[in-house]
Write a sequence for this structure.
């Protein structure tokens, strides 16, 4: 047992000094490898954390949202629907919501305006993104152009908390009266209806009943919204696939290069080792350790760098491309959350192929008779 | 003792350019003696050394080790003789490591690592404690007066120093047989004489020494016990050194 450990120790020792004597080549390999692992790990961490963030926000979202459609176009819902829908078995509460999108010509950004019950007329709560873009603080006035063309000023009561920025970056909360006046919403109508359903298993049935009772309505389930979030943030999103594709492709080229080539000097060294009594297994162990040291070091560095980049610097490298807002980039710190399964997949997709790729050409060279070294 | 029975080694069998390097060689190499394989280039000396040193297998014939030569091999203490011809590769590697110490024509040291590491290299797979191997390597380097270069890279040594390091490496696993292929081919007269003195000391320690050379300084040395003359893969004559 001790001899086996010593053998590993001795061969690992030689593997390290072997790596050091080809410093230039191995450092460039390590840098390249770390970069590939960093890119893949950062994308994986980022999408996972973002999805988690989105799911947390959706926990407070209504179970079903009911919209009214006119020939496929979203229209205002008559508040009269509330009572009839509330009468459907299983529906716990129905709340009419007033909101709308607003294009701000000055900043070139789209804001979401929403009615809030606890705001006095003439005041507004605004999201962090809007405060940043328009350089507005609490107590300042925010100008909003109303339907007839006149600009109305609202005093900012508070800037919405930093923690909810993913959902509230572009949000402006106003009193119901102000919102109706701005959008010229008639009394007795709402933008949509937010439903609370006690039993999650009944949501689909209730949605079907609403659709049957109100043919002009479109019930949207919470799970459908979640799916939409998923497809936006998930790695199936186009940008992710391209970035992941590039990273994986460069890794494949890199591993292939390793797998197909052993320099003449490396071949000669393998011959020398065999001629002085190393077995094929010893040579493979040496090459395994060489590959494992480079790939493990690169894996650890890549993963740590990705972790720091995503969770301490809020993924500043990917922010413009991946968060999906054109003007109002939300700023928030993602909560560190790493899925061990994804980490294991990443490990097996990077460390294992590379280590195997380093062993194969050495195995080919190590299985020939060592007398070639004697003749060299 | 090493006994060769009707040993033949052919290369490129079944290809358009087959050739036979060693033809029906029968030879006995006595233990604790210095034997020289003498002959011109292409006479089959190096091929015969590789066959005896378990670096290649003969195409036909048998090679048998006996006596101290197999004592270092796992289980060798209980054996009287060992036919190495049909052993699997991992056993051959074990014999190369435990029984033979090789000194190559071009020394074949691993470039880029230190002198000390080069000397320790054959002992790494044995699983011996690193500290013990290191201590023995330093002792060998001081024996050959190159311990001051222990931490230098081998590429920076002179020819004579490189050869002494190669000899130290050959001795690290305490082999009973030393095999040297054209060891003086790249040495001047003084260094060649120094090499023969070192070889003489091996003999005094009871080691079997086998050298392939056509250098008169080696073949005509008073330390040589037996000279085996080879040409075209065959033994022309074998007898005591003059």
């Amino acid at each position: 047992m001790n001899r086996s450990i010593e053998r590993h120790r001795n061969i690992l020792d030689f593997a390290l000094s072997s790596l050091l004597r080809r410093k230039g080549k191995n450092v460039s390999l390590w840098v390249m490898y770390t970069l590939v692992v960093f890119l893949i790990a950062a994308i994986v961490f980022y999408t996972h954390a973002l999805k988690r963030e989105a799911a947390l926000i959706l926990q407070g979202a209504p179970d079903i949202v009911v919209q009214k459609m006119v020939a496929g176009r979203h229209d205002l819902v008559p508040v009269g629907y509330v009572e009839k829908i509330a009468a459907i078995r299983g529906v716990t509460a129905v709340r009419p919501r007033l909101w709308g999108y607003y294009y701000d010509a000055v900043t070139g950004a789209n804001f979401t305006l929403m009615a809030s019950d606890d705001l006095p007329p003439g005041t507004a709560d605004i999201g962090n993104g809007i405060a940043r873009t328009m350089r507005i603080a609490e107590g300042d006035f925010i100008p909003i152009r109303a339907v007839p063309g006149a600009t109305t000023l609202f005093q900012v009561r508070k800037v919405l908390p930093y923690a909810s920025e993913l959902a509230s970056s572009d949000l402006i909360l106003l009193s119901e009266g102000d919102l109706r006046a701005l959008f010229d919403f008639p009394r007795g109508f709402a933008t949509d209806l937010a439903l609370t359903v006690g039993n999650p298993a009944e949501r689909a049935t209730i949605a079907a009943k609403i659709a049957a009772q109100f043919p002009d309505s479109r019930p949207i389930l919470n799970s459908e919204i979640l799916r939409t979030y998923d497809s936006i943030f998930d790695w199936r999103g186009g940008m992710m696939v391209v970035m992941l594709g590039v990273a994986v492709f460069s890794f494949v080229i890199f591993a292939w290069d390793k797998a197909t080539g052993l320099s003449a000097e490396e071949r000669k060294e393998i011959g020398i080792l065999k001629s002085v009594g190393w077995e094929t297994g010893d040579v493979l162990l040496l090459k395994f350790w060489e590959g494992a040291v480079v790939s493990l070091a690169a894996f650890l560095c890549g993963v740590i760098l990705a972790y720091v980049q995503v969770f301490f610097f809020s993924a500043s490298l990917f922010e413009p491309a991946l968060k999906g807002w054109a003007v109002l980039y939300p700023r928030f710190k993602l909560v560190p959350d790493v899925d061990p399964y994804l980490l294991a997949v990443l490990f097996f997709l990077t460390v294992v192929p590379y280590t195997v790729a380093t062993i194969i050409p050495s195995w080919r060279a190590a299985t020939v008779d060592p007398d070639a070294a004697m003749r060299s | 003792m090493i006994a060769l029975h009707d040993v033949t080694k052919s290369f490129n069998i079944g290809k358009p350019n087959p050739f036979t390097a060693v033809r029906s060689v029968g030879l006995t190499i006595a233990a604790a003696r210095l034997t020289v394989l003498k002959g011109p280039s292409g006479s089959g000396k190096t091929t015969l050394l590789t066959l005896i040193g378990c670096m290649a297998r003969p195409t036909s014939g048998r090679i048998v080790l006996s006596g101290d030569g197999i004592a270092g091999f796992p289980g060798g203490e209980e054996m009287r003789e060992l036919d190495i011809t049909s052993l699997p590769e991992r056993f051959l590697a074990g014999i190369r490591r435990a029984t033979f110490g090789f000194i190559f024509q071009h020394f074949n040291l691993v470039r880029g690592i230190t002198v000390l590491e080069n000397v320790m290299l054959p002992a790494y797979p044995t699983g011996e404690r690193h500290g013990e191997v290191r201590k023995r390597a330093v002792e060998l380097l001081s024996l050959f007066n190159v311990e001051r270069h222990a931490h230098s890279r081998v590429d920076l040594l002179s020819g004579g120093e490189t050869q002494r390091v190669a000899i130290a490496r050959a001795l690290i696993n305490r082999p009973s047989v030393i095999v040297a292929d054209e060891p003086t081919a790249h040495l001047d007269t003084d260094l060649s004489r120094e090499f023969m003195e070192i070889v003489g000391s091996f003999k005094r320690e009871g080691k079997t020494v086998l050298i392939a050379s056509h250098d008169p300084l080696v073949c005509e040395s008073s330390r040589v016990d037996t000279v085996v003359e080879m040409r075209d893969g065959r033994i022309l004559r074998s007898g005591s050194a003059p």
The mean pLDDT of chain A is 82. Residues 64-220 of chain A form a domain with the Barwin-like endoglucanases fold (CATH 2.40.40.20).
